[in-house]
Amino acid sequence: MKSLQKTFVLALILLSISTVSAQYGNNGYGNNGYGGGGYGGRSNQMNQNYDRTPEKPKEIPVEVTIGKIMEKLKPALNLDALQEIAISNVFTESIRSQGILMKSESSQEQKILEFKALSEITDSKVNEYLDEDQKIKYKALKEDTSKPKKSRRNK
Fold this sequence. Notes:
Elements: H1 2-24, H2 43-51, H3 62-77, H4 81-103, H5 108-128, H6 132-146
């Protein structure tokens, strides 16, 4: 009878050891301590999801933005090749300046004033490369884009 009790107790101990071992992953200790970052084998996977910092949205390259702007301006203003290159350089400089302004530590009001000034400077530089007819079209195009568009529900 005693041998039966000893066998039963030994089997109970062995089963409890294997259960504890399975909870901690990889026969006891896993990768980093218990189960690789917490208690239990799955905690490593869950911690990886929580440790990730939200990714910043990818910045669109300046060249892509300039390309889209020039796609609209070239046919609307009837630009020649020289005007296209000069105006795209003006917009490239303006967009890079906008990026610097966005990262500056100044107040919101100050940033707004600086953006307005930058916009006026950019417009005056663009106008230097346009003839009178193109200037009128450019002004009309800017006014069109600055007006808020009506949503489809309001129609």
